[in-house]
Amino acid sequence: MLSNHQKNIATFIHLSTFSRFIIPFGNFIGPIILWVTNKDKSEFIDDHGKQAINFQISILLYAIIIGTLTIPFFVFKIFNGIDFIDFHGFHDFHINIGKPSPLLYIGGVLGAFAIIAFILELVFIVIASLKARDGEYYRYPLTINFLK
């Protein structure tokens, strides 16, 4: 039988990932501190802590991959119209983007995908928190199990 204390700690492990909006890398620091200090007290807390940390590491990995694919498309498109040899100062400086290229469309699609993934991440964290509050186990979708 799970106590309310165990359910609350598991819930706060998931909710502590939102601390990234206040503290840099808070989405890793918060869950790791709560998990490490409480993992020996309950298998339930240990499982939820591992799930939260694995999900955050997976999200970081996916964000790095999407960023690595997306950023070059925008950079190549923006700097394509700039002639660095005839640069005469900032008073003459302008960027002519011209008509959209396929690179811009690909980058835009990947950027939109990143926004949708961010919203889904927030939804999955709330769902995991509610499952922990109710004493249920939860597996985040598309999570790589780094901690087993």
From TrEMBL:
What's in the keyword line of the UniProt record? Membrane, Transmembrane, Transmembrane helix
Q: What is this protein called?
A: DUF4870 domain-containing protein
Taxonomic classification: Bacteria, Pseudomonadati, Bacteroidota, Flavobacteriia, Flavobacteriales
InterPro entries in the record, alphabetically?
MamF_MmsF
Cellular localization per UniProt: Membrane
> Organism's domain of life?
Bacteria
Instruction: Please give, as recorded in its UniProt entry, the membrane topology of this protein.
Output: Multi-pass membrane protein
Listed transmembrane segments: 12-36, 57-82, 102-130
